[in-house]
Amino acid sequence: MTTSGESSVTRAGLRAEIEDTLAYLTCSLVARRTRATPERVTWQQYDVLELLRLRGPMTPSLLSESLGVSRQTMSKALRILKDQELVEQSAQSADKREQTTSITMRGHEFLARAARGRRENAKVVEGALSAEEQAAFVELCGKVANALNVAPQPFPVRDL
C-alpha cells in the first residue's frame, strides 16, 4: 500500500520523465529534420509551411493565431519565406489588404524532402517497435498531439 506522499513523489517523478522524454524526442526529430532540409528555414518557418500543406492557403492572421505567435512575428516569417520563394501571397477578396498565403512549387519541393526525412524516421520507428507497440505509439502520439493543440497555453503569445 502506498501513502499519498509516495504517490505524489511518483507522479512528480513520472512527470519529470515525460518532460525529459518529450524534450529528447523533440531534439532528435529536429536534428534529423535539419539534416534532411539544410536550408536556413527556422522551426517557425517550417511550421508555417507544414500548416499550409495540411490546411491549404491561409491568411496571415489565421496562421499567427494557429501557431500562437503575434501578427508581427508571422509577418517577418512570411517575408523570409517569400524571399526564399517558398510561399506566395495574393489578395483573395474585395479587401486587397488581406492576403492569402500559399505554398509555391519550390516550397512543395522543400516539403517533399522533409517528407522523405519523415518516412526515414518512420522506418527507424518501425524497426525499433513491435507491431503492437507501433499501434500504441500511433494512438498515443495522436492523443498527446490533440491534447497539446487544444490545451490553453500557460504563457502569453510572444515575439520570437
TrEMBL record:
Pfam families: MarR_2 (PF12802). PROSITE patterns: HTH_MARR_2. Residues 15-146 form the HTH marR-type domain. InterPro entries: ArsR-like_HTH, HTH_MarR-typ, MarR/SlyA-like, WH-like_DNA-bd_sf, WH_DNA-bd_sf. It comes from the Bacteria. This is MarR family transcriptional regulator.
